[in-house]
Design brief:
By secondary structure, the protein is mainly alpha-helical. The chain folds into 2 domains: 47 residues, no CATH class; 143 residues, no CATH class. Helix content is 46%, strand content 10%. The chain is built from 8 helices and 7 strands; from the N terminus they run αββββαααβββαααα. The protein has a 3-stranded antiparallel beta sheet. It has a two-stranded antiparallel ribbon with strand order 1-4. α2 packs parallel to α7 and α7 packs antiparallel against α8. The longest helix has 23 residues.
């Protein structure tokens, strides 16, 4: 008799889980899940959320930082990115990316968490990543003259349109020199990884 009751109970729980999965498009792991028809809550094992693929992996920047010479590391510090020399992230979990996007509130520029909201401000980013929070905004800078010698020399490293993080990584690894080419390659790789991806990665 008890066995039959347990079977019926498990069937009801299974039906509820299946409905929540259909409604929320999530996969639920574990035998016990509690929740209403419109909300799937965590049970004994937990809930597996959706994944979100990102356009750019931090792997190239991670490998570039690992390969820097002593002089290059000093240059990166002088550029204001010294806090990233200890970077240990070579990938971005898809579940974490989905959670951040799903929990982000545009009106308040904040991320919803269980304890409230985390405001995303320039000061918060500076405190968390150690990024420079002063100087000129690169988005407000005038575009370079196409005939600028430095720009032409930088483009010459990549042939016709081969502006990709993997190629920036190759050129950073090629030399221990801390010249303007190194600074431009590092900045472009950093911006494409953490700030904004431009057309063709440039």
């Amino acid at each position: 008799m008890d066995s039959r009751k347990n079977d019926n109970k498990m069937k009801k729980e299974r039906k509820m889980v299946e409905k929540n999965v259909r409604d929320k498009k999530v996969k639920v792991k574990g035998k016990k899940v509690t929740g209403s028809q419109d909300k799937c809550k965590e049970g004994k094992i937990g809930t597996e959320f959706q994944r979100l693929s990102t356009c750019m992996s931090p792997n190239s920047l991670y490998l570039a930082i690992k390969s820097l010479s002593k002089n290059q590391r000093e240059m990166v510090c002088n550029m204001g990115f010294g806090s990233f020399l200890g970077m240990k992230i070579d990938s971005l979990p898809g579940k974490l990316a989905y959670f951040v996007v799903d929990s982000f509130t545009t009106s308040s520029c904040s991320i919803r968490v269980k304890s409230g909201e985390v405001a995303i401000t320039n000061e918060a980013v500076e405190a968390m990543f150690g990024l420079p929070n002063k100087g000129l905004d690169f988005k407000t800078l005038d575009e370079c003259d196409n005939n600028d010698p430095l720009l032409e020399a930088w483009k010459g490293q990549y042939g016709k349109g081969n502006y990709y993080n993997g190629n920036y990584l190759k050129n950073i690894r090629k030399t221990n020199v801390t010249d303007e080419m190194f600074k431009l390659n590092f900045l472009t790789l950093f911006i494409n990884t953490f700030a904004e991806i431009e057309t063709m990665g440039s």
